[in-house]
What we know:
The complex is a heterodimer. By secondary structure, chain A is mainly α. Chain A has a domain at 64-234: MetI-like fold (Orthogonal Bundle), CATH 1.10.3720.10. Chain A has 11 helices and 2 strands. Chain A has a two-stranded antiparallel sheet with strand order 1-2. In chain A, strand 1 (54-55) and strand 2 form a beta hairpin. In chain A, helix 2 (64-94) packs parallel to helix 5 (141-165). The model of chain A has no long low-confidence stretch (mean pLDDT 90). By secondary structure, chain B is of the alpha/beta class. In chain B, strands 1, 2, 3, 4, 5, 6, 7, 8, 9 and 10 form a 10-stranded mixed beta sheet that branches. The relative contact order of chain B is 0.18. The A-B interface holds A 15-16, 18-20, 22-23, 27, 53, 55-58, 60, 124-125, 128-129, 132, 136-139, 217-218, 221-224, 233, 235, 242-244, 246-249, 252 and B 1, 5-6, 9-10, 12-14, 16-17, 44, 70-72, 74-75, 78, 148-149, 151, 154, 156-159, 172-174, 178-183, 187, 190-191, 194-195, 197-198.
Amino acid sequence: MSRPLADKWFRWGLLASAALSGAVVVLVVLFLLVASWPALADLGPGRYLTDTRWYPSGGLWGMSAMIVGTLLSTLGAVLLAAPLGILSAVFCHYYAPARMATLYRRLVELLAGIPSVVYGLWGLVVLVPIIARWHPPGTSLLAAILVLTLMILPTVALVADSALGQLPGSQVAGAYALGLSRAGVIWRIAVPAARRALATGTLLATARAIGETMAVLMVCGGVVNLPTSLFEPIRTLTANIALEMSYAEGLHRSSLFVTGLVLVLAVVTLVTVADRLGEEPTGG
Amino acid sequence: MGWYDRWRGGLLAIGLALAMAGAACSSTADGAKAYPHLVITGSSTVAPLAAEIGKRFEQAHPGVQVDVQTGGSSRGIADVRKGNSDIGMASRALKTTEQTLLPFTIARDGIGLILHQSNPVNELSRQQVVAIYTGQITRWSEVGGLDRPITVVHKAEGRSTQELFLHHFELDNRQVKPHVVVGDNEQGIKTVAGNPDAIGYVSIGTASYDASHGVPIRLLSVDGVAATLENVRNGQFPLSRPLNLVTREVPTGVAKEFIDFARSTQVIDLVEGQYFVPTAGG
Lengths: 284, 282
């Protein structure tokens, strides 16, 4: 067997870049494990999960309030962004005049490209004072949810838009030929056919919401607190790392790596679920 | 692709990573030999001033490189202890456990309570501040203000501003019931400027600078002493702190030159430019 030399080199080049990218991920996770090991070995995983109070200088290391804060803000943002994004994509595809649809797509792409710190700044100087007038202090779970919603909306909308665009034209045409109304075509044919892609897009958006740091840090209040209402401040896991990392030493620093480990686990879970949903069952 | 190929690929990647790490290490080692390189780490309050002084020092001493990195006072002290840096920066006096280190004060700064400009409250007693921060007083009407709920702005753990504040008011961090926890002075000021019902505490230097540039905040008197740079200078203001450069041993060579320079009259304009109180020549 004699393959051309160029082909061989190309193959090795591809292999090397793939291996390097893979190795980076593995090395990052290994680094996280090594860096969080002193805290995990000394305090044990239980200390982090059972307590809601986080006072590193006072020996209290509870992360559960921050885990709840992360989950609530993410869940709230997904509950708002998913329907909005999917409905706007449906409108764009089946109702909007062509020029309006194009303009709308450009706008959503622009929204997706804005750096998160800009959303955070907007949230801090516009959104938080508005909420504060209504129900002080303003920096709250609600503010975090609204800023996150804005940030993940483009992801949901763009994925939904491309999913609807990739549906075979014959399905939609066939449905019209059978005499279904436009609403009937959308809700009975198009959306069910695209549901896997819609779910995958939503999960990717969820992963982005969990990992978002700057914007949330600026509007959530940063108080380690189990919220009993939308207007109470929270602290997310990412905000905890960003607020304290450069000021932490010893066990405190190691505990912040444990926070990072918890985040990575959450995102890995989401991506795995998204992968499963994305696989079309054979013959389905 | 078989498992053998994959294994070889992984080995290649690890080899590459090691090679890069090796290259990075050797380059810093070479750099240290080639010209004097001063590494200064620590307090985010001192860092902007140290960086300005560093620039001027580099101009006066061609070939010297001053590298200033931010990371909080505790980090600055830990780095000096471990020998990771030549000079540490701390925006507080040394603790009793840190007495083996040598502090060199380059300026003083005060910590002041700030309110929104529209808040009619003019003064708070020590007891009132403590009651507000521990959640016993929750409305401004209880201290002579409007009938509005108080938003308590507190700092995150590890900040020397927070340590000094808690120490002065004899509070344990676990007693404090904050509504907002902020990281740095600017975030604290933005939070209070955006919320007419908020109270916070920040560096007087930063607050004076922002207030004189149109940010709607007001500095409050502490224990009856107005929060001005003048009162920090004459030692009357109770919540003040030294801004220190810290070394492990008696400084020699470039480190000594830099510390002498930072404490000399040649940098007074830089200290005042950051709204701190100079200690040199006074």
